[in-house]
Design goal:
The chain is an alpha/beta fold and about 425 residues long. Among the domains are: about 180 residues, 3-Layer(aba) Sandwich (Rossmann fold), CATH 3.40.50.300; about 80 residues. The longest helix has 19 residues. The structure holds adenosine-5'-triphosphate (ATP) and magnesium ion.
Length: about 425
């Protein structure tokens, strides 16, 4: 059987396998010279015993070999040294941007997205960060893997809770990474995900189910909760602090690990939870985040008895170092560490201003990535910031952010 074809981005990361002697890994990062890769080998947390620089062809051969030997790719661990630049750190942001955006526009780094997935054997277990996680059977609703996603070691406890079928609520500011964390665990472990947002028109009927007439017949349509429970999907109840009481009542019934749902409207039919079913909630202003309630207008307070049925984790924005890693990984090989560090500092400063309430708009990782991507295309941070940032916020916020950007980047340098 042929090993799968990888794109350049896909090379980067950790390849792991479990042996009787412990976990063995190979790590692939970008080499110092163009088109080279650095590969390192090690056991568990022991630093590498092999450290080589190879070209793409050589690496491809190694990938085939590791693939045959049972190594499984886990892109999450590569952040430690990914994108480290060996160049002169004093190079000005603008000249660095001019250099990489010329390459970006030139398109010579562009790689094809296609690869033959049919050849990829599906592992029974994957590593999510440092946790070995049993894979599901797959489903049409399995999210797409974001290879640039970074599983911080802070997330290990949450991953264990998911394994142990605990109900997990993630709280934190908008764009901090609550929803994407759950989706990326599910993507790697191949579980289907359903999302239901409570800050909108979601009714108890959408959530639990309803009777309707179809072709002259009255039929029952399951809502997202019984659908997820029966099919073994992961259900994310987004913005749970906006849910109406009847939805919270239905949820309470299934908060115990084996909790069953009684469909009262359907003659008290009992829905048993599939063993793969998992329930998650996200919120911006619950519990420890309640002091920010005024920033999230309309959020309800959740009572403690309800919260006690969840493990509640606070998800903070990534640290500037982590966020710079994510930028490099997402926009590799165009994004360099020098640019990423500066951009991550700008985001951190905007967030500090948001928490001081000098800014009324949050600065999400999503926004930062979008701005950075457009900046690579235009070679102009200000022009890129117009559609990615300034046009989305109030004029006084735009002026405030522009001042932060100018402080970090001298656009005319
Ligand atoms: N650890 C991470 N690694 C890589 N990208 C990340 C990470 N965390 C967040 N992101 C990026 O930030 C984006 C926003 O994250 P997400 O949608 O999960 O935020 P959220 O906390 O659910 O926000 P909201 O409260 O607005 O729903 C993601 O799509 C992803 O691109
Ligand atoms: Mg979300």
């Amino acid at each position: 059987m042929n090993a799968p074809e990888f794109t350049e981005n896909d090379f980067l990361g950790f390849y792991r396998r479990l042996t009787e002697a412990g976990e063995q890994w190979w790590r692939v990062t970008i080499g110092d010279r163009p088109h080279t890769y650095r590969i390192q080998h090690g056991m568990g947390n022991t630093p590498g015993d092999i450290d080589l620089v190879v070209d793409a062809e050589n690496l491809r051969a190694k990938l085939k070999k590791w693939h045959r030997e049972g190594f499984v790719p886990d892109a999450a661990g590569a952040h430690a040294s990914l994108g480290e630049e060996t160049g002169d750190a004093s190079v000005a942001f603008m000249s660095e941007l001019a250099r990489v955006s010329a390459i970006y526009r030139d398109g010579k780094w562009h790689h094809s997205e296609c690869r033959d997935k049919s050849e990829v054997p599906l592992p029974a277990t994957v590593f999510i960060g440092r946790i070995a996680f049993a894979c599901g059977a797959g489903h049409a609703l399995v999210p797409r893997i974001n290879p640039a996603y970074l599983f911080s070691s802070r997330f290990d406890d949450i991953v264990l809770d998911i394994l142990e079928n605990k109900r997990v609520m993630l709280i934190g500011h908008t764009g901090a990474g609550k929803t994407s964390f759950i989706e990326q665990v599910a993507a790697r472990a191949r579980y289907g995900v359903l999302r239901s947002n409570m800050n909108g028109q979601t009714t108890a009927g959408d959530f639990v189910g309803f009777w309707t007439v179809k072709g002259g017949e009255t039929i029952w349509v399951d809502g997202v909760l019984p659908t997820a429970m029966r099919e073994g999907l992961w259900l994310i109840v987004d913005e749970i602090d906006f849910a109406e009481p009847s939805i919270l009542a239905a949820l309470t019934a299934v908060l115990e690990p084996q909790g069953r749902l009684v469909l009262k409207e359907k003659g008290h039919e009992i829905v048993e939870p599939h063993p793969d079913f998992r329930l998650f909630a996200t919120a911006n202003a619950v519990g420890a985040m309640s002091r920010f309630r005024h920033l999230y207008q309309g959020a309800n307070l959740m009572n403690e008895a309800f919260l006690d049925r969840w493990r509640v984790y606070r998800i903070d924005y990534l640290t500037p170092d982590e966020e710079a890693d994510v930028l490099v990984r997402t926009l590799a090989p165009h994004m360099t560490r020098l640019l990423a560090d500066t951009l991550a500092s700008i985001a951190a400063e905007c967030r500090a201003a948001f928490l001081r309430e000098d800014l009324s708009s949050a600065f999400s990782t999503r926004r930062l990535i979008d701005w950075a991507e457009l900046m690579l295309r235009t070679g102009d941070p200000e022009r890129a910031a117009e559609p990615a940032i300034y046009a989305k916020v109030a004029p006084e916020d735009a002026a405030f952010i522009r001042a932060i950007v100018r402080h970090h980047i001298a656009p005319n340098s």
